[in-house]
Amino acid sequence: MLKLSFTNVTRHKVRAILSIFGIMLGVASLIALVSVVDGIRFQIEDAFSKAQGARVAPIKATDPIFSQLDGKWVSKVAKVQGVKVAIPVIIQAAKNIDGKDLSPFNAVRVLGIDLSAQSKATGSGFTGELLEGRDFKASDRGVVLIGKKIKEDYDKFLGTNIRIDGEQFKVVGIYTTGSDLLDNSIEMSIEDERDTFSFPQGKISYINVQFTNPGQVQSVVDRINAIYGEEIKATSLSDFSSQFGELFDSITALVVVIASIASLVAAVGIINTMLMNVLERFREIGALKAVGWTNGNVVAMILYESLFVGVFGGISGVVLGVLTTGFMQGFGLTTVVSPSLIVGSFLGAVAVGIAGGIYPAFMASKMDPVDALRAE
After folding, report:
1. Cβ contacts of residue 225 below 8 Å, gap of 6+?
2. Spatial distance between the Cα atoms of 28 and 190, rounded to a whole number of angstroms
């Protein structure tokens, strides 16, 4: 029966290829899109997992770019037991870089850090690894550290100038966090940030907190929230990893829904192909039933045919999807193709193939052999 089903699929090669092509595109797009989302997730989670400390922000803050915190909280947080240093930070989105206007899709975040406070810390938790140049000095003004992606996108090097919203700064260091998203940022002194973006005096965006004992991060975070939890909220940097994970779970679900629409279209194509095959084989199916084939045999034959389409579409889709992710890596995108993604995509293609054959199989099994043999 398997051999017969395979032969039936190859009778109309163009029709079969188009059905396989539909499944292939759905599987390949699912693998490519999910791999990109997982790649970004991996970069960000890895970057934050290496960071130590916590962030203190307004209780109802969403994006720190749009939040303002009274500067008085810096001294209050610094006095909490277990806190080593509280570092005020202002974060804003640049409107233009070197005279080039930026859209929300290529936004560059600029962080203004209190360099005097940071000099007392072992690290801000955000700069990551310094690739070139030097770190900030407490007295620095008019200089910036840029992320690796800024260097690449704007062709910057140590000692070159970069103009941010009309103000010119000198590049003294280049860093990487391991994430293109986080590397698309610039750091400067908090005084330069306040002047460049006309940020209100006495206000900051949030506070970076470092602890006396890194092993007691959560207990000190809980202590800050217990004392001041009605007005501010402290969150450990490692917790941001899980928060991003929840966000990317939602994005992945959206990607799966989009890919499922493509799979639905492919299933409709398979139904059409199988129905055409059944209508063109009335006499053949009637003859098979006349010589003793049961309804179950006919159903199995048609389902095997649609299964073959699903399997071929799944295999070709997986191959195309993996090749596409490799192609995207050549353009600097980080992609993660997990075994579960490949297996799940392939099984989804097989399921689509079988689902597309159920109705045609049911129609074929209900044929009356005498009527089928009389059909022209």
Report:
1. 233, 234
2. 46
Q: Give the chain's mean pLDDT.
A: 83
| Domain ranges across the chain | 2-44+244-374, 60-230
pTM: 0.62
CA atoms lying within 13 Å on the CB side of residue 140: 26
State the Cα torsion 279-285-287-293 to the nearest 10°.
-160
For residue 146, the SS3 value is strand
Q: What is the pLDDT of residues 129-149, one digit of tens each?
A: 889 999 999 999 999 999 999
In this structure, the strands spanning 203-204 and 69-70 are antiparallel
Three-state DSSP class for residue 43: helix
Distances (CA, A) of 294 to 207, 287, 290, 304, 368: 75, 12, 9, 15, 11
Q: Between 216 and 239, where is the model more confident?
A: 216
pLDDT at 260: 73
First to last CA, the chain: 25
Nearest alpha carbon to residue 306 among 280, 276, 286: 276
Residue 46's closest CA among 183, 143, 158, 226? Answer: 183
**CB-based burial, 120-159: b 16+ in 10 Å, e otherwise:** ebeebbbbbeeebbebbeeebeebbbbbbbbbebbebeee
- Both tokens assigned to 38: 């997982």
Torsion (CA) 181, 184, 188, 191 in degrees, nearest 10: -80
Nearest to 361 by CA among 5, 23, 17: 5
Which residues, in sequence order, are bridge partners of residue 178? none
